[in-house]
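Subject line: Sequence and fold of a protein, written as structure tokens
Enclosed: The protein record, placed directly beneath this head.
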Amino acid sequence: MAAAIVAIAKAQTRSSSESKGATPTIEELKSGVGRVETLKCDGSPFRVGGHAVAGSGFLIGSRVVMTAEHGMYVGLDEPACKMRVHFGSETYQVTSVRVWSETKKSDSYERLGIDLATLALDRAADGHIFQFAPDGAPRDTNVATLGYPMGGPLKITRGTVTKNLIDRKTPSIAAKIDIMGGNSGGPIINDRGEVVSVVSRIVISGSLTSDGSNRHGGVDIRRWWGDNALSDLCLTYPDGGLPNCVGSSSGTTTKVPIALKR
């Protein structure tokens, strides 16, 4: 569990009809999505099939990246010893990891809880800071994801939400989005550029396409975290550069992160 942390935040709530500034452009959104690498203790990247193991992540504060928990692991049980995130030509070292679920069971794709983690960076990154959608993503919502499929160039892929469901006791969304390995951890956003979920390959009853391939999705952040996402994250990262964090008081999070054992 997180140690005692001082800070408090007021969650920003607004209806879907209210606008808080202009919708960010694609180029602005791209600036806030990074390539996340898992490293050996000597600082060299893990490699599978000749390719460095890499995923995606996105800024929720100038020094905080949100990503998928399964990116913390290589193979079945081996956690990353070190991590780093690339935004454009800049590279940032990860100083700490928080996992927003219970500890893993047998392998990196079977979890108790949600496939969600946050990474603290060694310094502030200059990129778009994503905010969470206040009204979730019901079925047929147009969505998109940005990430680095197969560790290649940053790509945006569009699709629609096909189902709202409970996946392993976690409120989740399934979306018809064409993604590949390396997209995991990227944001799933609505047409206002707000985050509704984080990419995680999920296989659930009724979620298979006609050709048998997986549909993709992840935790439904609005249904799982409610109105407390910003407050909880500000409490966890008082110096993380998250927007709209205010005040200075003691408090506890409603969703308690678990420190990754290194």
